[in-house]
Amino acid sequence: MEKNKNNKRIVLDLDLCIGCQSCVAACALGYSEQANVMLGQVGEIAILPLHCRHCEQPACVEACPTEALDKDEHGFVHRSNLICIGCHSCVFACPFGAISMDLMRHVTAKCDLCIDRVLEGKIPRCVATCTSGALSFKEIAEASAEEVWVGGRISSRAIIRRM
């Protein structure tokens, strides 16, 4: 992958998502039982995964007082577990609700698009395990207006409520 060429994002087809949460299970398995995927609930209609959008100008990175969040040369926003103090500033700064509070480890869980896999040319764990085919990993330009970006402007609320 060339520098600054990470133009792929996880896209969710709402019509195909069955709410099985296999994406969360795959993420937890890949990250030592800490899922970095949030779940959002759309009223009583659906529960669906919310992934980090790896924004052009990420508010979470700006809000982090310890610089534990950083955007690398590939465009990935990632977190350093060793620097994160669990203050949750990024949780409140994320306009999409895609970052969760993980109080067990006193750090904040955040999707990193499975950087290790993507840099090897593979797809993220959640996409690879999606049983219904609702998740895909596409170039940004390929996504049509009918597709909803996971973690994007979806009418949902996080299952873990913010105080």
Q: Uncertain runs with pLDDT below 50, 5 residues or more?
A: 145-158
Name of the top-level CATH class: Alpha Beta
Report the C-alpha radius of gyration, rounded: 15 Å
Total of helices: 5
H/E series, N to C?
EHEEHEEHEEHHEEE
Number of domains: 1
Strand line-up of the largest beta sheet: 8-1-9
Head-to-tail CA distance between termini? 40 Å
CATH fold descriptor: Alpha-Beta Plaits
Report strand %: 15-25%
Largest sheet: 3 strands, antiparallel
**What is the number of strand segments?**
10
Helical content stands at 10-25%
Give the CATH architecture. 2-Layer Sandwich
Overall geometry comes to globular
Mean pLDDT figure: 76
Summing up helix and strand content along with how strands pair, one would put the structural category as alpha+beta
Give your account of this protein's structure.
With 163 residues, this protein is an alpha+beta fold. It has a single domain (8-158), classed as Alpha-Beta Plaits. 17% of the residues lie in helices and 23% in strands. The chain is built from 5 helices and 10 strands; from the N terminus they run βαββαββαββααβββ. It has helices at 22-30, 59-63, 89-93, 115-118, 125-129; strands spanning 8-12, 38-42, 46-50, 69-71, 77-79, 99-102, 107-110, 135-139, 148-149, 157-158. The protein has a 3-stranded antiparallel beta sheet. It has a 3-stranded antiparallel beta sheet with strand order 3-2-10, with no helix packed on it. The longest helix has 9 residues, at 22-30. The radius of gyration is 15 Å and the shape is globular. The termini are far apart. 33% of the residues are buried. Mean pLDDT is 76; it is low at 145-158.
